[in-house]
Amino acid sequence: MKRLGSRWPVLVLIAAFFVPALGSRYYTFLANDVVIWALFATSLNLLVGYTGLVSFGHAAYFGIGAYTTGLLMKKIGVPFLLAFPAAGLLAGLFALVFGFFCVRLTRIYFAMLTLAFAQIVWAICFKWNEVTGGEQGMPEIPYPDFAWLERVATAAPFLSYRTSEYFYFLTLLMVALCLWLLRRIVGSPFGRMLTTIRENPERAEFIGVNVRRYELGAFVIAGAFAGLAGGLFGIFNRGVFPDFAYWTKSSEVLIMTLLGGMGTFFGPALGALVLLWLNQQIVSYTQYWPLILGTILVVLLFVFPGGIAGAALGLWRRLSRRPASA
Description:
Blueprint: H1 2-16, H2 25-48, H3 59-76, H4 80-102, H5 107-127, H6 129-132, E1 138-139, H7 147-155, H8 163-187, H9 189-199, H10 201-206, H11 211-236, E2 239-240, H12 247-260, H13 267-283, H14 289-303, H15 307-325
Antiparallel strand pairs: 1-2
């Protein structure tokens, strides 16, 4: 069982590559959306779940990453392989500036200051017509160049897919790489120190840990990965708009993190899958979907106070202990 537990992320990734083979563009679209939001939610989990910092403005870095990729690819013609890391770099730099002020405060004051900075970013995106397109945003963000893949597909018909499906495969690879890096960060001494700070920041400071420096480091890393998720989302959405940086995006990703299970690494990704799937299903049946979705979320959070992943981990531990006790 332990061996299976260590390999299941690889099995999920392999299974995800076969989604376009189902022949439905809807499932590919939904899977692409889930994968990007999974990275966004996992980046927030580094703050909320591992460091104990509740951010209400994480969408600011998502929006910065989306606009960075959009501006570079559409207006300057920079290739994706350069525009994508630039999204994470610029979002990380903004997170460094904002975080310098935010980590000086604690709890609700920290949360409200992150929201204030996010609203500043949203206002700039909404009003700076010459650069961001203002309220109209930047439509028609181009896909990366897949011409070489299309040439290969002529010789190997089983590799022939639509451009959107090629982008889905690229998204899977980029997100898998980002999640692997985040996993390494969480398992490193730096990540373990973040957990110590979450449990008892006063004790960590007493033994000589520079708590503010570690919190700022987590803030910057989380912002950079949120920027990478935003860069992918802008291309996937075929446009970048000011609401990418609005507070509602921050609330959505926070709900995903809580629903999936903050403090568990793959919990936010599971929360993204559940929330987006519920949203798609309920919207197709009734116009009162916000009421029904809200009710379902309240019930789920009461039934699984540690999140869905937390409940699954508890069940897994019970099952794994049973043969040993027998």
